[in-house]
Recover the amino acids of this structure.
């Protein structure tokens, strides 16, 4: 077991921000935490890393409580760039972590090389762009080659080239055995790196078994779409009609029932298209009632 989050509750004053959050990461995988602005992602990550305390619940990392300071040799938390000091260089930041963790200058340089920050390593952070700061934060978080890497918005403010670089680096670290939990608003990027997405809504983690969203969406074009909708709904099959196409969330087996029902009722099927459902579609489905969809 790499991470076990159990029944976490957290409020700020009267505002309940996290309600009974439970999930686990059992193997080295890349898991994303997604939710609108203010949904509690940073709060949850700070509780997991013991920077904030929960009202109730428990976090265990690598089979130890997160109150055990020893685990910080084996995990890392990349926060936003407010943790950086403008008047220090990138190297100073890395040296500080290396001193705390008993790591060598060679390890600093090797990691800096890997992240691609050697050319500005000895400049003060006040001269860094947002992307350069993100890369330094990533170098700081990966210096100890953690077993669990937690990242709050690692892709924030990165241009496409930098995003690709960070994405590839995360995939590489994961292949080497690092489990990764990251929060992000970049849903297209999330689909490229993650194996699992946790959606936070109103302080609650949506059921991890999002089977209804895991199903494919079939777009079916028929000669009488409105009649088809009526027929399908009578048989308990939910469908939406737009631009004369029917959208049906279905698995591969039950789509056969839909087709035979349409054919039996003498409708002509003009086209069938299978659409892969990505995190953005799932996000819209989960948060469609939200007034301010924050992507
Ligand atoms: N120290 C604090 N005191 C009071 N309220 C807070 C505090 N920190 C966060 N909150 C509130 O808790 C809620 C969750 O905030 P949090 O920063 O965890 O959300 P988030 O999902 O990370 O948001 P974002 O995507 O904008 O970074 C918000 O309503 C926020 O205003």
């Amino acid at each position: 077991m790499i991470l076990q989050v159990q029944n976490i509750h957290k409020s700020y004053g009267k505002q309940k921000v996290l309600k009974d959050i439970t999930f686990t990461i059992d193997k080295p995988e890349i898991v994303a935490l997604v939710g609108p602005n203010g949904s509690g992602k940073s709060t949850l990550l700070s509780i997991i890393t013991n920077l904030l305390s929960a009202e109730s619940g428990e976090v265990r990392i690598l089979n130890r409580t997160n109150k055990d300071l020893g685990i910080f040799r084996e995990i890392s938390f990349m926060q936003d760039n407010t943790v950086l000091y403008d008047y220090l260089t990138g190297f100073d930041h890395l040296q500080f972590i290396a001193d705390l963790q008993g790591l060598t200058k060679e390890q600093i340089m090797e990691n800096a090389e890997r992240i691609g920050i050697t050319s500005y390593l000895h400049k003060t952070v006040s001269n860094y762009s947002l992307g350069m700061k993100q890369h330094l934060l990533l170098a700081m978080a990966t210096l100890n080659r953690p077993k669990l890497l937690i990242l709050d918005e690692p892709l924030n403010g990165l241009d496409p080239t930098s995003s690709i670089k960070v994405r590839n680096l995360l995939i590489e670290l994961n292949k080497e055995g690092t489990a990764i939990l990251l929060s992000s608003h970049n849903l297209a990027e999330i689909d490229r790196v993650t194996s699992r997405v946790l959606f936070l809504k109103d302080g609650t983690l949506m059921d991890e078994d999002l089977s209804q969203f895991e199903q494919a969406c079939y777009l079916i074009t028929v000669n009488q779409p409105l009649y088809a909708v009526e027929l399908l709904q009578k048989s308990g099959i939910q469908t939406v009609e737009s631009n004369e196409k029917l959208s049906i969330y279905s698995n591969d087996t039950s789509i056969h029932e839909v087709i035979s029902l349409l054919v039996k009722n003498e409708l002509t099927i003009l086209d069938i298209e299978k659409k892969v459902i990505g995190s953005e579609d799932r996000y819209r489905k989960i948060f469609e009632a939200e007034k301010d969809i924050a992507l």
About this structure: The CA atoms of residues 235 and 261 lie 9 Å apart. The chain has ten helices and 14 strands. The first helix runs from residue 41 to 48.
